From TrEMBL:
Species in which this protein is naturally found: Sphingomonas aracearum
Pfam family, one: SRP_SPB
EC number in record: 3.6.5.4
Keyword Cytoplasm appears in the UniProt entry: yes
Protein name: Signal recognition particle protein
Domain free text: Composed of three domains: the N-terminal N domain, which is responsible for interactions with the ribosome, the central G domain, which binds GTP, and the C-terminal M domain, which binds the RNA and the signal sequence of the RNC.
Location in or out of the cell: Cell inner membrane; Cytoplasm
InterPro entries listed in its UniProt record: AAA+_ATPase (IPR003593), P-loop_NTPase (IPR027417), Signal_recog_part_SRP54_M_sf (IPR036891), Signal_recog_particl_SRP54_hlx (IPR013822), Signal_recog_particle_SRP54_M (IPR004125), SRP (IPR004780), SRP54 (IPR022941), SRP54_GTPase_dom (IPR000897)
Length: 448
């Protein structure tokens, strides 16, 4: 899996990592190579472009952490961007099947012929049985392909999972009804429906799937696609997701896919999480798809990533300690505000302490909702930079004349400066209130 991409990226980072300093040109050159590596891995062009643009901006805008090299930080940035591309931290949770309903939960498998749908149905059934101790019933609704139902029955015997007895001549919707009925009566936890495939996406197939979904009301509709078909797999997924409410994708034949383009583009193009990867013909060759782990496998630089994480945590710790001592005194000047804004930018979130300050929380919410983006944070930073040291320590000194100077110096407007001052004022007030409540300890006690 991903061998060729791994090799390419490995080469790019080896050249970067040892270096003590990186210029913007170095970063841009490295990111260009990352882009080529992604395209060679058959990642969709717009996806590769967006990936590299976002990572480049982050890498150039970052503050270098103590105790790691800039190259190491770039590795971490690319790692994080990969995790995001593969589904993000939400993807970890999404990799699970959501089967929490009054049993039987229904999992409907859809996909083109030959994608590995029947094999994957049996693999998932086996996994649910052995790992989660679920009682699973499988039913094949494929009445087109001769012996499709027998194939599932054979696999069922192999993995020791029950299959619905075959009744000749029944149509897919009838079979789905009968399967649901049996599953209910016989106390099955999960019913897996293996639907018919086609050679191409066609309307008859889509209509049949919709009719089955109406009857079976599945909790999960999983699309099975062959990763070896690269961008075609992504196109198939796009087609299917326009017609049926897919809850996830299973990528088969990842064992033979050295490039990985389908896996890398799938989430960005279709918005659907990859839930499992098929990694062989054997019934146990199925892996839950964890974006973090897959990114780690692609880069093979887990040590660097955790080193940078630890360094970032250390900085956060220092910031937190400084904040704690300021809080105790009820102080909050422009430098404190800048430290917090910087942290928001670096970490994409607030430290535990700043999270308690109402104004900061609001700012964070605005940032998460997209109302404040990184550029606004950078502008605030520029305004604070344009203040004198005295002004930063005592913002009340900032009169109309000084506001004009600060706005000019930072390429902003007096209105922007006013907004910043107001935000700071609100936070400083909150700090004073916290002090009155007996400092942080008092506040913690109040919060229980
Ligand atoms: P369906 O027509 O979509 O139901 O496809 P099948 O389940 O019959 O699978 C077609 C072929 O692909 C079979 O020979 C499977 O053993 C094989 N296959 C399925 N998944 C994988 C996988 O993850 N890796 C490999 N190497 N082969 C697979």
């Amino acid at each position: 899996m991903f061998e060729s991409l791994s090799d390419r990226l490995g080469g790019v980072f080896d050249r970067l990592r040892g270096r003590g300093a990186l210029t913007e040109a170095d970063v841009r050159a490295a990111m260009r190579e990352v882009r080529v590596a992604l395209l060679e891995a058959d990642v969709a062009l717009p996806v590769a472009r967006q990936f590299v643009d976002a990572a480049t901006e982050k890498a150039i805008g970052q503050n270098v952490l103590r105790s790691v090299t800039p190259g190491q930080q770039v590795v971490k940035i690319v790692n994080d961007a990969l995790v995001e591309l593969l589904g993000g931290s939400a993807g970890e949770e999404e990799a699970q099947l959501h089967l929490a309903v009054t049993p039987p939960a229904v999992v409907m498998m859809v996909g083109l012929q030959g994608s590995g749908k029947t094999t994957t149905t049996a693999k998932i059934a086996r996994r649910l049985k052995t790992r989660e101790n679920k009682k699973v019933l499988m039913a094949s609704l494929d009445v087109n392909r001769p012996a499709a139902q027998e194939q599932l029955a054979t696999l069922g015997t192999q993995v020791d999972v029950a299959t619905l007895p075959i009744v000749a001549g029944q149509q897919p919707v009838e079979i789905a009804r009968r399967a649901l009925q049996s599953a209910k009566l016989q106390g099955y936890d999960v019913l897996m429906l293996d639907t018919a495939g086609r050679l191409h996406v066609d309307q008859a197939l889509m209509d049949e799937m919709k009719a089955v979904a109406d009857v079976a009301t599945p909790q999960e509709i999983l699309l099975v696609v062959d990763s070896l078909t690269g961008q075609d797999a992504v196109n198939v997924a796009t087609n299917f997701s326009e017609q049926v409410p897919l809850t996830g994708v299973v990528l088969t034949r990842m064992d033979g896919d050295a490039r990985g383009g389908a896996a890398l583009s799938m989430r960005a193009v279709t918005g659907k999480p990859i839930k499992f990867a098929g990694t062989g013909e054997k019934m146990d060759a199925l892996e839950a798809f964890h974006p973090g782990r897959v990114a780690g496998r692609i880069l093979g630089m887990g040590d660097v990533v955790s080193l940078v994480e630890r360094a970032a945590e250390a900085v956060q710790q220092e910031d937190a300690e400084r904040m704690a001592s300021r809080l105790a005194k009820g102080q909050f000047d422009m430098d404190d505000l800048r430290a917090q804004l910087g942290q928001m930018r670096r970490m994409g979130g607030l430290g535990a302490l700043a999270g308690m300050i109402p104004g900061m929380k609001k700012a964070q919410a605005a940032m998460n909702s997209g109302a404040i983006d990184e550029r606004i944070l950078l502008r605030m930073d520029a305004m604070i930079t344009s203040m004198t040291q005295k002004e930063r320590a005592k913002p009340e000194l900032i009169n109309a004349k000084r506001k004009i100077r600060i706005a000019k110096g930072s390429g902003t407007t007096v209105q922007d400066v006013n907004k910043l001052l107001k935000m700071h004022q609100e936070m400083a007030n909150a700090m004073k209130r916290i002090k009155k409540m007996g400092g942080l300890k008092g506040m913690m006690a109040m919060l229980g």
